[in-house]
Target: AB hydrolase-1 domain-containing protein
Amino acid sequence: MIRRLTLGIVAPLLLSSSLLSATAHAAGYPQQREADWIAPSFTFHTGETLNNFKLHYITVGDPANPAVLLLHGTYRSGADMVGKDFAGEMLGPGQPLDASKYYLIMPDAIGAGKSAKPSDGLRAKFPQYNYADMVLAQYRLVTEGLGIKHLRLVMGNSMGGMQTWMWGETYPAMMDALVPMASQPIEMASRNWMMRRVLVESIKQDPAWNGGNYSTQPPSLRLANTMFGIATAGGTLAYQALAPTRAQADKIVDDRLAAPVTADANDFIYQWGSSSDFNAMPNLARIQAPLLAINSADDERNPPETGTMTAALKQLKNAELYLIPASAETRGHGTTSFSKFYARQVGDFLKALPQR
Model:
């Protein structure tokens, strides 16, 4: 039985199956704008349907230019892709994704940023979503909301990287190229999943969570997030350089524990739990587009020494891996947030693609 849910979003005018409403015009890159795509309904993999479904996004550049889809990491937002760490060496004049030559699309995933999420009002009654739902929502935004039939590139980081593998499998003729970063196509398992499971359970087992019906954010949210961040991102060499003494290590922990809590516990649980059934391996052979995978040698969640990525890439006809060398300057799983480590490689990869 399909359960239909409605969020309090007013959609007075529908354009075909969606409403495109611009919400802001930001300075920085050519024709940068924010908008919402609102569909009358969206059906999740569980069969649940959410009415007045909203997906927020940022675009940069001229819609007449080749389109590029950029996908953010877990519990982040599309705004990451116009931040200086990524955009600073990617979107400027003469850079790999020169905003004057491409039309860049940066959606907020389901459950994150300004897109539909549990904290909008449904709390723990919000439909349980997974990465397949996120990719479907992105596809509908691109095709129905923006009227784009083909993408020059799909590129994503961490969660967005895993979804990039899925884009290549689900819509193999839709793009010219794929760049998944800080990810692998293998089943969500091993330490990567175990740490996510503990992260979610540590909040759910906090009595203050109260089945998702809390009045203030559970204290476990701050502690769990701090522990997870230190344990699964940051880089071994980087932390040794940043905190070679106990006093310096304590200072980092104290600063993180003192930072304001801006997350919502239900949103947090949904976001991290949404990766539970990820596994791109069974359909890897469907990928047709040339692929450049970018990982960091010190990635705590995707350790290269397992050899799983190398084995996976052998199943593809046109794929290569750029492994960023570990150093005190890299940040483990967080390394690929900084385009300075791979901008040249992406530029060379795009230049070698056939022109369309």
User: Anything to note?
Assistant: Strands lie at 4-6, 19-24, 33-43, 49-60, 67-71, 103-107, 153-157, 178-181, 291-296, 319-324. The radius of gyration is 20 Å.
